[in-house]
Amino acid sequence: HGKENVDSRHGRGRGGETTRFHTVNMAQPVRFSRKCPTGWHHYEGTASCYRVYLNGENYWDAVQTCQRVNGSLATFTADQELRFILAQEWDLEEKTFVRKDQRRFWVGYQYVITNRNHSLEGHWEVAYKGSSEVFLPPDPIFGTAMSEKENVLCAQLQCFHFPTLRHHGLHSWYAENCYEKSSFLCKRSQTCVDIKDNIVDEGYYFTPKGNDPCLSCTCHNGEPEMCVAALCERPQGCQQYRKDPKECCKFTCLDP
Q1: What integer pLDDT is reported at residue 168 of this predicted model?
Q2: What does the alpha-carbon distance between residue 71 and residue 140 come to, in Å, rounded to a whole number?
Q3: Would you give the DSSP letter of residue 118?
Q4: 40, 52 Cβ separation under 8 angstroms
Q5: Distance (Å, whole) CA 50 – CA 221
Q6: How far apart are CA 74 and CA 163, in angstroms?
Q7: What residue stretch is flagged as signal peptide (predicted)?
Q8: Average pLDDT over residues 86-109
Q9: Does residue 1 surpass a pLDDT of 50?
Q10: Looking at the structure, do residues 177 and 121 belong to the same domain, yes or no?
């Protein structure tokens, strides 16, 4: 942005004439703060956004809620991604279906039971086929609300509220009755978000979140590209003024 006031500099031109140079609103590189809508956490490693929904829903309703926000129940591609999830503070509230010191979320895996003879045997599957790089959880802890008729159980990731436990990455995997109600974790691709926190579709123009409301970019793969900036002259006849942080070339005069 450079200097707010016009900076007049004097130099000597040919013939000894005085040349005046005016510097107004020099453009500077912009650091964007975008990628995820409000309430979502961004992880650079997967270019994805994550959000915990607190309203207790059964597994199938949770799947539909995630789909309505262009996402799915979260699956994980690497240990680093899981550690990122476990380290977050999800602003969780007290709910009747969670304990104060630990949280459980539906995530995008299902446990298929293959043998009920002496002990439960089975294997994990990804609930909705996606990336082949998705890793599968270890052997689960079986929930208390199991039905003898169910051959498919749904995955809950348990993480801990206490910071020392959370930052050490301690967690457990549960195979639970899919009709139990629980919080759940949605995952979606990063997206373009404009300066007013609206989600922008692929290929559309928008002004990214940041400190330059006069920037116009094209949304491409969740990133602002091909940006063009407008330069604004200071308001005439006004000595002190304030720029609107979200409207291009809009000023408020502060003079008496």
Answers
A1: 57
A2: 25
A3: S
A4: no
A5: 17
A6: 22
A7: none
A8: 67
A9: no
A10: yes
